[in-house]
From TrEMBL:
Function field: Catalyzes the conversion of GTP to 2,5-diamino-6-ribosylamino-4(3H)-pyrimidinone 5'-phosphate (DARP), formate and pyrophosphate.
Gene from which the chain derives: ribA
A Pfam family per the record: GTP_cyclohydro2
Organism: Craurococcus roseus
InterPro entries: GTP_cyclohydro_II, RibA, RibA-like_sf
Ranges where the GTP cyclohydrolase II domain occurs: 103-270
Catalytic activity: GTP + 4 H2O = 2,5-diamino-6-hydroxy-4-(5-phosphoribosylamino)-pyrimidine + formate + 2 phosphate + 3 H(+)
Cofactor: binding details: Binds 1 zinc ion per subunit.
Annotated signal sequence range: none
Descriptive protein name: GTP cyclohydrolase-2
Cofactor(s) named in the record: Zn(2+)
């Protein structure tokens, strides 16, 4: 039952397609396999299809699943686990709400000597999110003057660590730290939401599709993901634990302003955070402006 985004679709698969390579080809457009036309999708997908799709996304897998009925008595006999659909759908919000700082250390940075790193983890373990604190943003937040600078930065292995020219993430990361150091205080949330929440492996798949002519948004959709899968509750919970309830946000993305405010953080202004194209990421930046509504002008 391949499920696609933004619309969810479900098909009854012929037996000829029930082998691992065929299923991978149906789920992954980067494989390049050709198949006969599938039957028309069900008018009403199965009731539990959204939860099945959400479970695949939580595992950072391609959001395509094969569903088969199973008698409750057979689950234990086959060594299978059972999880309720409501629990799957509620998990992202619950995990974000349970985030708590578990480790902290001074980590002087190039150009920002007064820096600390705080690691956050959800109650069930899961992935760690990090906060880079420059100075004392909590004290600035409690004072009556300007709110401290903040940035929500989704981790980008290729851009932040390798210096990839395909995006502007590395420039945004280092530029934000420099700006906060200049002001004397700020908080950068380094969120484990690679590729707008689809994960590194799927981001590489999306790059492959972009090399074939799709833009960032259409490549994500071709893989079954939404345009942006990130969860702003994560950032709001971290800021709350850090004692920062009001910020000036370093961003070009209006969705971050609205999303953070909707989660209870007072966003007292936007600070522009754009960097010039480098000759490789020109199309990427144009897509961010035209299709994602980023304010790059």
């Amino acid at each position: 039952m391949p499920l696609a985004s933004p619309e969810l679709a479900a098909f009854r698969l012929p037996s000829a397609l029930l082998d691992p390579m065929a299923l991978r080809g149906l789920a992954d457009p980067t494989v390049g396999l050709e198949f006969p036309d599938l039957p028309q999708p069900f008018r009403d997908p199965p009731l539990l299809a959204p939860a099945a799709l959400a479970l695949a996304k939580l595992a950072r897998l391609l959001p395509a699943v094969v569903a088969a009925s199973a008698a409750p008595a057979s689950l234990e006999a086959e060594g299978l686990l059972e999880v309720g659909a409501a629990d799957v759908l509620a998990y992202p919000a619950g995990a974000a709400a349970s985030l708590w700082p578990v480790a902290e250390a001074a980590v002087p940075l190039d150009g920002a000597a007064d820096a600390r790193l705080v690691a956050f983890r959800a109650a069930d373990g899961g992935v760690e999110h990090l906060a880079i604190l420059i100075g004392r943003p909590d004290e600035v937040a409690r004072a009556g003057g300007k709110a401290p600078l903040a940035r929500l930065h989704s981790e980008c292995f290729t851009g932040d660590l390798l210096g990839s020219l395909r995006c502007d993430c590395g420039s945004q990361l280092r530029g934000a730290i420099a700006r906060m150091a200049e002001e004397g205080a700020g908080v950068l949330l380094y969120l484990a939401q690679e590729g707008r929440g689809i994960g590194l492996v799927n981001k590489l798949r999306a790059y492959s599709l972009q090399d074939g002519g799709l833009d960032t948004l259409d490549a994500n959709r071709a893989l079954g993901w939404g345009a942006d899968e990130r969860n702003f509750l994560v950032a709001a919970a971290m800021l709350e634990r850090l004692g920062v309830d009001r910020v000036r946000l370093l961003t070009n993305n209006p969705d971050k302003l609205a999303g953070l405010a909707a989660c209870g953080i007072r966003v007292e202004g936007r600070e522009a955070h754009a960097f010039a194209p480098n000759g490789v990421n020109d199309g990427y930046l144009e897509t961010k402006a035209r299709r994602f509504g980023h304010l790059l002008g």
